[in-house]
Amino acid sequence: MLDRHNLFFYHKTMEIRVLKYFLAVTKEGSITGAANALHLTQPTLTRQLQDLEKELKQKLFVRGRHKISLTPEGIILKKRAQEIIDMVEKTEAEFQSISDTISGNIYIGGGETDSMKYVAEILKEINREYPKVKCHIYSGNAEDVTEKLDRGFLDFGLLIQPIDISKYDYITLPKKDVWGVIMKKDCTLARKEFIEPKDLINLPILASRQMSPKYSKDSGFLDWFEGNFESLNIVATFNLVYNAAVMVKAGLGYAVTIDKLVDTSKESELCFRPLRPKLESGIDIVWKKNQVFSPSANLFLAKLHERFIK
User: Fold this and answer.
1) Residue of 117, 164, 124, 157 lying closest to 138 (CA atoms)
2) β-strand 280-281 against 156-160: which pairing, if any?
C-alpha cells in the first residue's frame, strides 16, 4: 500500500511514465543522456520535466553547463518516485502471477544471520516445485527492514532479537545466534578460547546495532558487561558486518558480532571467539498482520508453517 506521501503524488495525476522520465534524468545526469536512453527527443523530454515542475510548483533541477543536479525538492521527489515505481512494478507482478501455475515474486528482507539458511532451504524447495517463482533479498538492519515491510515493499522480514514485533505476525526460528568477538588471529586475545567482560574493557571496540543504548538492555549486553558497559572504548559502530571485518583486518579494533558471518577459515587472518557467559539472540520471521499476499508469497508462508509450526 502506498503511504500518505506517495498517495499525495499519485493523486496529483502524476503519470508513472513521467516519474520514470524524471528518474532517468537523475540517473544520466543530463537531459541529452536521458533522452537517448528513453528514445525521446530532447525537446519532448524537456517539456515533460517543465510540466512536472509546474504541476508540483517546485524547481526540481539545477541546470549546469554540462550536467544537471537535483534541488532539495528534487531529492525528495527522487525518493518518492522510486518508491512509487517499485510499488507499481510489484503490484503488476502480483497480478500477473494470479494463474493456475504459481509464479511471481517473493520479497524478503533481513539482517545478517546464519538463520538465513532456513529461508534459503525453503526457497530452494519452492524453486524446484515452482520454477517461475523468483525471490528478491534485501539486506539491512531492523529499522530498514521494518520500514520497507510497513510500506509494502517487502513481504517478510528476518529480524534479530531484541526488536518490537507486536504489530506483526511471526514465527520464531529454532536456533539462536551466538555472540562473540571477531579479531585478528595474531593478536594476544586470540589465544583465549572464550572472551570474558574484563577482556574487552580497555580495547577499541567495533559495536553492532544491538550494542547501542537503544537495544543493549534488552539484548543482554548491560548484564553481560557487569556494569562496565558505559566505560567501553567504542571506536566505531556498524549494522552489517562485512565492513566491520574490513576494519578489523586494518587493525582498527575488535568487532562484537554474531557467529558464522565472517570468514574465519584456516586461510583467513580473522578468528571468532564466543562470549562467556554465553550470549545469544533469537531470530523471528515476521509479516504484517492481515497481510494480503500474492500467490507466491502465500506459498512461502505455507512452507514456513509446514516446517516450523508443529
Assistant:
1) 157
2) unpaired
Q: How far apart are the first and last CA of the chain?
A: 32
Query: Which amino acid does the sequence have at 149?
Result: L
196 φ/ψ angles, rounded to the nearest 5 degrees: -105, 160
Distance, in Å, from the CA atom of 72 to the CA atom of 134, rounded to the nearest integer, reads 36
Q: HSE (CB half, 13 Å, CA atoms) of 187?
A: 22
Q: 72-96 and 16-28 are packed helices; what angle lies between their axes, rounded to 10 degrees? A: 120
Whole-number pLDDT of residue 2: 42
33, three cell numbers = 543522456
Say if residue 204 is preceded by a cis peptide, omega within 30 of 0.
Answer: no
Q: Encode pLDDT of 178-198 as tens digits.
A: 999 999 999 999 999 999 999
Which of the given ranges, 2-11, 154-163, 266-275, has the highest pLDDT on average?
266-275
Question: In a 10 Å sphere around its CB, with 0-12 CB exposed, 13-18 middle and 19+ buried, how is residue 307 labelled?
Answer: middle
CB-based contact 31:25 (threshold 8 Å): yes
Cell of 153: 515493499
Residue 124: CB atoms within 10 Å: 10
Tell me: the pLDDT tens digits for 85-117? 888 887 777 666 655 567 889 999 998 899 999
CA atoms within 13 A on the CB side of 154: 25
Burial (CB < 10 A; 0-12, 13-18, 19+), residue 11, is exposed
